[in-house]
Design a protein that fits this description.
The protein is of the alpha+beta class. 26% of the residues lie in helices and 28% in strands. Strands 9, 10, 11, 12, 13, 14, 15, 16 and 17 form a nine-stranded antiparallel beta sheet that branches. Bound molecules: adenosine-5'-diphosphate and magnesium ion. Adenosine-5'-diphosphate (ADP) is lined by residues 125, 146, 153-156, 182, 184-185, 187, 190, 213, 216, 255, 267-268.
Length: 356
C-alpha cells in the first residue's frame, strides 16, 4: 500500500497555492510555511503555519508535520534550508539554492557547465561583478547594461539600466550590496524551458515557451514558440544538462535570450516551478506543479502529452478588477490568486487561453 505523504512547502504565494492543488489531486497533503499571514495558499493546504522564516521553534513544528520539504521561491535563506535538511529531505537540495539565489555564483556555475559540456554551445551574457562605481568604470564596455543585485531580485526588482558612462555618477548604489553588471542584449526573443527531473535521472521536458516581458516583468507566454527548431532543441538539451549537473529533483526553469544574431544565451535558472510554465496546467496532461510533486515524492513519471497550444497572460496590479467582473468562454481559464492587497507590478492572477 502506498503510504500517504505530506509535503511541506516554504512560501504561500500563487506558486505554493498551485503546488498544493496539484498535491491534493495526487492525494498528497501539504503544509505551507509562510511569513505572510494572508498568503493565498492558506486556502489550498491542509495546514498553514504563519511565522518568520528564521523562527526555529516554528520550523521544528513544521518539520515534524511533514515527510519532505520543498519551496516556492529561491530566496529562502540557505541556512534555514540546510537546517531543515538535517531532519527531513529538502528537494531540490539546499546546495542548489545556494548557488542559484546569488546571480554571481549562478553565472559561475553556468560557466563551469560550459567547460564540462564544450559541445553543447552554452553561452551567457557578458557580465562583471560590481562592488562599487569604480568597478562599473572598469567595465564600461558592458554599457549599455543592466545592474542587478547579486541576491533577492525578482520581476525586475533590484535592477537598474545604465545607458552610458555619464549616468554612473548619478547612480545610487547601496554599498552594502554587491551587484552584477550585464551587457544589455538586443533581444530578438525570450524563451524558457520547463523541465522536471526525477530521482532515477529521467526527465520530462516541456515544449519551449516564448515569453514577452514589459518593464522586465513577464507579460505573456505561449506555445508553440515562434523560433527555429534547432535553437529550441538546443535550449532543451542545455536545460537537461543543467538539471543533471545540479543533480536536480523536481521542476525547474531555464530562461534564455535569443539575440539579434540568433545566438541562444542563458539568462537565468529558477530552481522552482515558474510563471512561464503556468500554461502547462491547461495545455498538458501533467502540469509543471503536478510533475514537481511527483518528482519530489518519488512517484512514477507520466509521459507528457500536450493537449492544446496555449497562451498565458499575466494579470498585474489593478488589472485584476476588470477580470473579476468578466465572464469567460470554455477555452479561457482565469486564475485569481486571491491576494488581498493590489499593488503596482504585483502579479494578481493569470488567464490561459487554449487554441481551439
Ligand atoms: P528576474 O529575476 O527579475 O526575472 P531577469 O534577469 O530575468 O530578472 O530579468 C528580467 C527581464 O529583464 C528579462 O526577462 C529581460 O526581458 C530583461 N533583461 C534582463 N537582463 C537583460 C539583458 N542583459 N539584456 C536585455 N534584457 C534583459
Ligand atoms: Mg527572469
Amino acid at each position: 500500500m502506498f503510504k500517504e505523504q505530506t509535503v511541506g512547502i516554504i512560501g504561500g504565494g500563487q506558486l505554493g497555492s498551485m503546488l498544493s492543488q496539484a498535491a491534493n489531486k495526487l492525494n498528497i497533503k501539504t503544509v505551507i510555511f509562510s511569513d505572510d499571514k494572508e498568503a493565498p495558499a492558506h486556502k489550498f493546504c491542509n495546514k498553514f503555519i504563519y511565522s518568520e522564516y528564521s523562527n526555529l521553534n516554528k520550523i521544528e513544528e513544521f518539520v515534524n508535520l511533514v515527510d519532505l520539504v520543498t519551496f516556492e521561491f529561491e530566496n529562502v535563506p540557505f541556512k534555514i534550508l540546510e537546517h531543515i535538511s538535517k531532519f527531513k529531505p529538502v528537494l531540490p537540495k539546499p546546495s542548489i539554492n545556494q548557488i542559484i539565489q546569488d546571480r554571481f555564483t549562478e553565472k559561475k556555475f553556468i560557466r563551469n557547465t560550459i567547460g564540462i559540456f564544450n559541445n553543447a554551445d552554452i553561452r551567457l551574457t557578458n557580465y562583471a561583478l560590481i562592488k562599487d562605481k569604480s568597478d562599473i568604470l572598469k567595465n564600461k564596455d558592458l554599457l549599455p547594461g543592466l545592474l542587478k543585485t547579486r541576491t533577492l531580485g525578482y520581476d525586475g526588482k533590484g535592477q537598474l539600466i545604465i545607458n552610458n558612462e555619464k549616468e554612473i555618477d548619478k547612480l545610487e548604489l547601496n554599498l552594502k550590496k554587491e551587484y552584477v553588471l550585464e551587457k544589455k542584449v538586443n533581444l530578438k526573443k525570450e524563451i524558457s524551458i520547463i523541465i522536471t527531473r526525477f530521482s532515477n535521472n529521467e526527465c520530462s521536458i516541456y515544449e519551449p515557451v516564448e515569453n514577452h516581458h514589459v518593464d522586465q516583468i513577464l507579460r505573456k507566454s505561449f506555445i508553440p514558440a515562434n523560433v527555429n527548431k534547432d535553437t529550441l532543441k538546443k535550449a532543451q538539451q542545455q536545460a537537461k544538462l543543467f538539471a543533471e549537473k545540479l543533480n536536480y529533483i523536481g521542476t525547474m526553469c531555464v530562461e534564455y535570450f535569443i539575440d539579434e544574431n540568433d545566438n541562444l544565451l542563458v539568462n537565468e535558472i529558477a530552481p522552482r516551478v515558474h510563471n512561464s510554465g503556468h500554461l502547462t496546467i491547461n495545455a498538458y496532461n501533467v502540469s509543471q506543479f503536478e510533475n514537481h510533486i511527483r518528482a519530489i515524492c518519488n512517484l512514477k513519471k507520466v509521459e507528457l502529452n500536450k493537449i492544446h497550444n496555449a497562451e498565458m497572460i499575466n494579470i498585474i496590479g489593478k488589472e485584476i478588477a476588470d477580470y473579476r467582473k468578466k465572464s469567460f468562454n470554455k477555452s479561457e481559464f482565469f486564475f485569481d490568486y486571491g491576494k488581498k492587497e493590489v499593488k503596482d507590478k504585483r502579479k494578481m492572477g493569470h488567464l490561459t487561453i487554449l487554441e481551439s
